[in-house]
Amino acid sequence: MTVSDSNKFLDIKQKYNYIVAQSNQIITSQTKIVAIEYFFDKDPGFENGISLPASPSNNVLIKTTIETSHLSPGLHRLYVRAKDENEIWSILQSKPVYISDKTLAETYSNSPSKISEVEYFFDVPHDFGNGESISFLLNSEISMKETIDVSGLALGLHRLYIRAKDETGTWSVVQSKPLFITQRNEFCNSQLNIPNVKKIEYFFDEQTGFGLGNTFSFISNAEINLTKTIKVSDLDQGLHRLYIRVQDETDTWGIVQSIPIFITQQLLHNSEQLINAKITEMEYFFDHATALSKGNHLSFASDNLVSLNKKIDISKLSPGLHRLYIRAKNNFDQWGIVQSKPIYIKAIDDTLVDITEIEYFFNTDPGYGYGQSIFFTSDNYVHIETNLPVDHLSEGIQCIYVRAKDRNDMWSPIKYSNFTISNGPNISFIPDQTAIETSESHSIHFTVHSGLINNNLTISAWSSNLSLITTQNILIKQIGTSCELTLTPVHDACGTSIITVLADDQFLTSTTAFDINVPCITSIIGDVNGDKKINIMDVIIILQRLINLSF
Question: Of 103, 146, 206, 278, which is the most buried if we count CB atoms within 10 A?
């Protein structure tokens, strides 16, 4: 749901006053959905959004027109949420919406520039030209399959950014995708305590109750890779949606995943027909579906595998976001599933407008012009390095947003970055300890608290005197914030060691230290054999001495 256009025109004539929100995504709930509301940018509170008409149901499909005439030009975010019959609100869903002036470019080129450079980077924005380059042949359209090195990334969620530059030196809008780095071995799974998957089920079109879907047979493991044939003969021809979900050994169900599938007539009855099937017709169209064979036709030589490199006329498209659809037909008069890609038409403006204002804010948008200003000299290219105050922010994950305004009073899209504020873990006080020389172990209890919601808090400890307490004789048991440290002195050793405890929450570390004293015991009354213990051996030795004295 995106409205977009070039933002560099001076002759502002008309603004988009609505967007059409159409989606085949189904809002589902185990209980009936009774209300749906939406809002832009800032949450007005439950029940205070703009209501969308919906009949109470477990599955709601909405196609509607949403008014946007009150929004200023620039990037906004549309939020939608639903309420069930138990008065419980769902998690917010959101999409970016770009509002700009609806004007046609006076001139724009029919000859696209050649792409001269492609670069990528992870997580943190880089200056233009400072990313990791990808090699390719200069062309106006390129298709790449590259292996990107991720060995330097830590485990967890990251974001891959990629952008291109043409031969005029103009950089494209940066594109990004999330990616999750994880170790793929059994040791990692045991270390992270990932539970095994014990059940996988699937169903079509409508949600079923947990455990009531069609199941797959497999060997239980923490990571499952399946190749299965699913029966679809009971489905009608047309568009359907396949849902799949898994349950682990703790009986916890994962988030349901889905993919659209299209059922067509089974005209090809054997592999020979499939091999001999040839593509005889291809057509394309923009934005709105057309009847079969009524699109724009592409010329090619009929074959069972067709590779095309064609220029498509876009001169009749207005600047902004569009969608290109393409489909093919074989010699059995069977049409394939339509494929589509978003395309963005941008009018060429050779002049760069001076940037006159830059503002930033944390977490919540105060509105255009109400952020914290950054001082700089107005120019068409601005590079700023500055320190921003963050002492008013609480511990945890924060987000900073930045946007700029040009001399035509047009605001740029918002750029943002997440960062974390933490004072580090807090280890409770541990007093100095005294242990008996002959004791097998000495337990110490303490707590560790972190200002972050972090499941990866780790505790470690070490000894300054390894002849008294070795590394192998230091054991730590951690349950949440409660910890137990067990120290076992070396047998017959005595003296003092400094024990240092370290807590690491992946952002900051904290340490504390205490002394443990194991006093030296020179003799014990009754210890005849000198093993510094009184036991049955001492009694036997005394009896033997008495017997010897009697004779």
Answer: 103
Phi-psi region of 217 (alpha: psi -120 to 50; beta: other; left: phi over 0): beta
Question: Where do the DSSP E strands lie in 18-73?
Answer: 18-22, 27-40, 50-52, 57-60, 63-67
Q: Which residues contact 169 (CB under 8 A, 6 or more apart)?
A: none
pLDDT digits (tens, 9 = 90+) for 302-356: 887 888 888 888 888 888 888 898 989 888 888 887 888 888 887 655 567 889 9
Q: Which two tokens stand for residue 433?
A: 């300890």
Domains of the chain: 18-99 (2.60.40), 115-143+152-181 (no CATH), 186-263 (2.60.40), 271-345 (2.60.40.10), 355-421 (2.60.40), 426-518 (2.60.40.10)
**Higher-scoring residue by pLDDT: 17, 415:** 415
Question: Which of residues 469 and 529 earns the better pLDDT score?
Answer: 469
What is the gyration radius of the CA atoms in the chain, in angstroms? 34
Identify whether the C-beta of residue 303 lies closer than 8 Å to the C-beta of residue 278: yes
- Rounded Cα distance between 76 and 367, Å, is 10
CA-based torsion, 423, 429, 432, 437: positive or negative = negative
Identify whether the C-beta of residue 200 lies closer than 8 Å to the C-beta of residue 242: no
Question: What local confidence, expressed as pLDDT, does residue 12 receive?
Answer: 24
**Amino acid symbol at 10:** L
Assigned token pair, 312: 């498509």
Please work out, in degrees rounded to the nearest 5, the angle formed at the alpha carbon of residue 545 by the alpha carbons of 544 and 547.
Answer: 65
Residue 473 amino acid letter: N
Listing DSSP states for 380-403 in one string gives SS---------TTSPSEEEEEEEE
pLDDT band at 532; cut points 50, 70, 90:
low
Residue 543 region by backbone torsions, left for phi larger than 0, else alpha for psi between -120 and 50, else beta = alpha
pLDDT category of residue 479 using cuts at 50, 70 and 90? confident
Q: Is the Cβ–Cβ distance between 417 and 400 less than 8 Å?
A: yes
| Mean pLDDT rounded to a whole number for the chain | 78
Report the length, in residues, of the chain. Answer: 551
Rounded (5°) CA angle 317-319-320: 105
